[in-house]
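Contributing new records

If you add data, match the layout below exactly. Sequence lines come first and carry their own label; structure lines follow with theirs. Keep one chain per record. Anything else will be rejected by the validation script.
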Amino acid sequence: MRILVTGGAGYVGSHCVRALCDAGHDVVVYDHLVKGHRAAVDHRARLVVADLGDRTRVNEILGSERFDGVMHFAALAEVGESVESPLSYYRNNVASSTTLLEAMRDHGVRRIVFSSTCAVYGIPPSVPIGEDTPVNPISPYGRTKLAMEWLLCDCANAWGLGAVALRYFNAAGAAGDASIGEDHAPESHLIPLVLQVALDQRNEILVFGDDYDTPDGTCIRDYVHVEDLATIHQTAIERVIPGEFRAYNVGTGRGTSVLAVIEAARKVTGHPIEVKVTKRRTGDPPALFADPARITRDLGWAPKFTDIRATIQSAWNWHRSYPNGFAK
C-alpha cells in the first residue's frame, strides 16, 4: 500500500512510519517539522515538508500520487497549552484536518487511521475504561479530538470513508535499537522527565499530588509502548472497512502510579531520582487505564510490552544515547 503519514516526523508517527516501511509499504511523510524532527523520519520514506493547513499543497500531494490510505498524526497535543490557546488547537486539529479530509474525498482516498486519545473521556466514572464509557472531554485538546471522531463518522456515512480512531493512553518507550525516541521541547511527559533527572539534566521530578484515592496517593496511568502503538496502527490501516467508522481504546489494561514509575526508573537507571511533591494539577483524574478487550477481539492486537520496567528500559537506552534528543 502507498500511505500518506501526516505528522510522521513526530514521536508516535515516526515509529509508525518505520513499522510501515518494515512491512513493505510505500510511505510518504507530510510534516511541517515545527514539532517533529527530520532525523526521526525513516530513510525509506519520502518526506514532504509542508503545513497541513496549506490546502493547495495537500491537494497537490494527494492528487499527484495514488494513495491507498492516510495515517493522521498531525495535531497539537498539550492539554495545558490547549486551555490557554484554544483557537490554535481548533485551527490545527480540526480546520487543518478538515482540509485533509476534503482532499481525500476529492481524490478518492477512502482509508484513514486517526490518532485519537483517551482525553475524549475526560474524568471517567470508573476504570478500566471501555469504549462504552461516556465521552466527556474537559480540555480543548480532548474536544478537538472528539470533534474529529464525529467528523470521521459523518464522512463515513456521507461518502464511504473507512476510518479507525485509535484512542491511546500514555505513549511511552522508544525503538528497540534506540535510534528514535521521544524528543519534545518543552518536555511534559513523565517518563522522559524522570530520565532527565537520572541524566542530571534536572534536579528533581515534580509529583503533582500524593493525596489521591489510589494505593500510594499518586495518579495512575496506562503506559503503552510506542512500538505496540506502531503495530496496531499498521494493523488498523490494513483492516479499514470502507463506509465504516470504528473507535478503539489502545492500552495495556494495567495502571501504574507516578511513584511506581519513578521507582522502576531508579531500578533501570541505577540512579537516585529526587522527588518533590507539589499541589495537584487541575483536571488530573486519579486513575486512567484502558480495557483493550474490543481491539483484541476485533483486530487481534495485544501489547507485547506489559512490564513498565521494559518500557522504561527502552526509553532509557534512547535518552542515554541521545541526551539532547535529535539535536545530537
